[in-house]
Amino acid sequence: MGMPLSLFWSRSFLLNRFFLWLMFICNFLGTVYGYIWYGNQIEDTVSNHPLWQVVFVPDSPTASLFFTITLLYWLFPPRGDSRFVNGARMIIEGLAVVTSIKYGIWAVSMIVAGSMQGDPLQWEHWMLMASHTAMAVEVLLYARFMKAGVWAAVIGTLWLLLNDTVDYTYDVFPWLSDRLMDDLTAVKWFTYSLTIFSFIVGGLALKARKQT
């Protein structure tokens, strides 16, 4: 008999140190790869935009970075009961949840939208769709173990709204397929709508959490 699916949902499996280390390594490597993937756009932004806008360019790897840091909290639980440490942890967890849900769905949506308009799907696209889907799924699996509350999701959502505004006001949004540039206004409003959706889903997931 195979292992029951409930095992993969259990606290004992998801918070097992071996599995946490595996998750950490995968997310860390994915984060590094993500920043490398954005390398050309980061260079272009540094050359043609004010430097402060660079932080708003690499959306997905920054979301992955937040969750990678969250995994470290389980691997190396902070000692003591510092309000600052706990507050920082909860903010990072809130950012991890809403940003990972949003950019996980957003990236897959843009690839699919481009393919529907004639862009051929290469192996990189399938890899990106798989990895970005995993981003959204993993934070929903782990949200019930986080200390963050809905207020942390609010902070994460405010960051996303700021990011959206900077992206589409100063044209530092993630580079799109040429076929999607004609639909930039629709992409913009889809992006804002996805921010609100991510807050609702992430907030509900955190509200239903169990304390670690």
From TrEMBL:
The membrane spanning regions, by residue number, are 18-38, 50-76, 88-113, 150-169, 189-206
Q: Which UniProt keywords apply?
A: Membrane, Transmembrane, Transmembrane helix
**Organism's domain of life?**
Bacteria
* InterPro entries in alphabetical order: DUF1405 (IPR009845)
The molecule here is called Uncharacterized membrane protein YpjA
Q: Which organism is it from?
A: Paenibacillus catalpae
